[in-house]
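All the exercises in this workshop are built on plain-text protein records. A learned vocabulary of local backbone shapes supplies the integers on the structure line. Once this layout is familiar, the rest of the handout is easier to follow. An example says more than a description, so a record of this kind follows:
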Amino acid sequence: MRLQWFWCTVTSVSTRQPRADRLNHWIAMNKTRTVIEQGIALQSEVKLDRWINEWETVNKTDHVKEQFYLQTKLNEQPPLSCSPDAGFVLSLLGHKKVFYLEQDLGTSSPKQIAARKTKGYAELANRRLHRKHFPETTLDVFSVLFVTTNAYRCKTTAEKLKTRPRPDLWLCIEQQELTPEAFLHEPITLNCQGERAPLVKPLETEIETP
């Protein structure tokens, strides 16, 4: 009986063999998550309601055949999908907003990133499929946090996003500026218009909806 319980428990999580070439990426993602959680812990207004990693089952309580991941196939022909590195929900004053994470390690050019990533997120937003991942959200919009390695990649990627589908979804952040103290209320996000702003506006005390 104990063995049967253990088997049921482990099959509710991903059992895929870890890829060695993704190790640095996972370490960076874990660092970003830790900073976000520490930033949330420094205050009491904004809550981190849920966090889903790339290959973590979204709807764990559903029947196995009905379970799915953040990776979403949008079209067969032409092929189109959206594959966030992670997703989470922040809540404030009764509002719950979805954020997707794109963790960049500088392995592709900003131009390639903008060309490869934006179509999937644009279609996800147009169909409001973020509500499938996070049914608890109260908003029809979401944001993509693009966390990158340095100020140059942050600025250049934001510029390249401007001509791509739904650039309004994207907020670029330099990894060095992403600290627990700065996460919510410091102007560390850069949008495609070159404007810097905090994730949460201190004076208006509401989650930013770009």
Notes: The helical segments are 2-10, 23-41, 110-126, 130-133, 151-161. The longest helix spans residues 23-41. The chain is about 30% helix and 25% strand.
